[in-house]
Each structure stands twice: as structure tokens, then as C-alpha cells.
Give the backbone structure.
Amino acid sequence: MRASLRVALRARLPSCVWRPSPLCLLFCIVSLAVVRSPVLRAQRSVPGPGEGAPDVSDTRLLGQPALSDTHIALIYAGDLWVCDLDGRNVRRLTSDEGVESAPAFSPDGQLIAFSAQYDGNTDAFVVPVGGGVPRRLTWHPGEDVVQGFTTDGKAVLFASPRAVFTARYTQLFTVPLAGSMPTQLAVPHAHEATYSPDGSHLAYTPLSPRHLQWKRYRGGAVSTIVTYRVSDHTAATIPQPTERANDADPVWVGDTIYFRSDRNGEFNLFAYDVRTKAIRQLTEHTDFPVLNAAAANGRIVYEQAGWLHLLDARTGQSERLKIGVAADLVERRPRFAKGNEWIRDAAISPTGARAVFEFRGEIVTVPAEKGDPRYLTTTPSDHERSPAWSPDGKSVAYFSDTSGEYELHVRPQDGSGS
């Protein structure tokens, strides 16, 4: 194998003395390591059963909630789940390998529209709240992200870049539940949108959120909420502070638009009265932002710190929901991984005799010619990364989150000691 690989490399170089560059040498070592090394060919990816398992009685990382009069829909581990308003009777509605997102209830609470990566593309689907086979509504290669239902419940509202030649923004469309071609709305461009209860208005955010990349972003592309009247195409923007802010996730209930905003620091829930134009803050979270709000029947559900919270809009009282999701989480199942696709970082020793690799969260060294692979870390439950050799070639430095935070570690490259 080594001889054939070296001959192949020689054939691509001028007819002179062959002196492989460091890049060529690294390529050779990577190829040989994947073929020769049992360490790189097989590795248990996660700790044994029970180690660091999620709490199935009070699960975190629940996201993208939707709300009806009787149920909460949510996304967990890339699948769509539904439960009662008190967090009980949790049921999984989808189990496809594709990722589900953006659930929304129909006005009567009997259907859930959502986006899913089935068949190699992100499209809009609906499924009964009681379960069943999801039914596909859109078929365009553009990414169709569900926003909700029309007020009569006969069509699904979604955002898509399908008619934008630059793909730098999205527009709004509706597609009938009965099946037909989508209809584009007159709004020039929108990222998120919701109908007013009577369907006469829309509240939408024109641009994709910059604050996801830059916390407390205050540039010219801050997220604003625009109210749009369907009958005469007039529009108005919810007032912002003079220093600007990011307003997102509008939810229209009665004469109030609920939304998330970082105008007072961390993202919290706010309410905008469309009659008086008054804005008031509803939540006071300071540790983590409020995310992904939805509303129904005087209640608002939102995500914060990995949990779901239910807010009574009439009293202003918020309750953290205790929702237990017992998922199989196949990605956490102990298994073996192999192949050079798991090599994420590499470095050559000062002498060129060995190379060190970050292989799926472990630090491994392999020889260029003679010797055995050395498994420097044996911590499947921890993540080691960014290995580097010392100038004398005796040690390897790397980062590890063994303590819970990334810290710098140095250990002998021969595998002895710690």
C-alpha cells in the first residue's frame, strides 16, 4: 500500500529527486492511517448506557413550541412531539431521519403543519394531532418554512426563497390543504409572519435575523416587525428605541402582538397594543434568551434555557413546564465509527515520523512508516480537539472538555503518563 501510494505521488511530480512536501506527507499518513489503524477504523462513539443520559421526566433542549387550546407541539431531537398543556401525555408524531421544524396548529387544533427534510428537501407537511402519515403540501426545491395557517384554516402560510433569484431573502406564500399551486402574497419579502385573528392584517419581520450571528446587533439590518393591511397594502413598523433593537417572532392575539425583543438587554417577551401603540415587557429573564414563542387562547408558550414556559397573558404569570420526553436518541447509542470523514484536525511531528489526529473527539497518533498507532485519549464521553506537537516532539497539546469547560492539556506523545 505504501509503495503503491508513493509511486502514484511520484508520477505527479517532475522527474527529479522526490521530496514530498508536508502536505503530501500528511496526505500519505492520513491514507495509511485509515487503512492500517484499528484505532481509526473502529471507535466507540459515546459512553455506555446510562452515562449522562437525558432526564426522561424533565427533559431539556425542547424547542420550537406551538400552542393550541389543548396541546403543545414541540421539536426534540429533530422529531415532532405533542403533549397536553400541563406537559403530560407526551407522544412522538414523526420518526423520520429527516429533521422536522417550525410546527404550527390549525385554528381548530386538529392539524399540525410543519417543515420537514423528507425526500432530500425541506417542504411543508401536515399531520393530524392524533398522529398519522404526514401529508406533503409543497414540492419546490426551495426551502419552505411553515409560519402558520390562514385564519379560516384552509391553507398553510409559509416563507420560501423559491421566487428570489439571489436567495438572499424569502417571501410569503399560502398553499391550500386540499392541494394546489401556492399563492404568493403581496409582501415584498418576509422572514417570519403571522395573521391577525380576523385575517385583515399580517405582522411580519422583513429580513432574516442578524442577531443569531451577532448578539445585541444594532446595525442597519436589525429585525423589525411590520404590520401590513391586506386590503390597501399599507404598512407600519412597531416602534423601536432610538438605539435600535431586534424584534422577532410576532404572534397576534386579539388586539395585541406578542414578540421577542432584546431592546432591554437579553431577549424577553413583549406585548404591543395595536390600538394604543403601547409596548410593555412581560418576562424578565436575564440568564438565557427567550426563544420561539407561540400563543393561543390567552396563553403564550416559549422556549428559555432549554425548557418550555407557559405564560398567562391575562395575569402575567409564567410557569416552567415539566415535560418528560423518552426518546431512543440513536445518535447516543454506543457504536463503532470508522473512516477518514471523522478526521477533523491533524498535525505532523517535528521529525515527520508521526502525525497526530483529532478523530471524532479523540487524540490519536499514527506512524509514517514503522510503529503502531497510539490512542492518547480514551474518553468517549469527552471531546478533545485541536492537537499540536511540542517543538521537541515529546508532547502533544490539545483542548478537552473533561472538566465541563474546554481546558488546555499537555501529555507525552508516547502514550505514557497523563
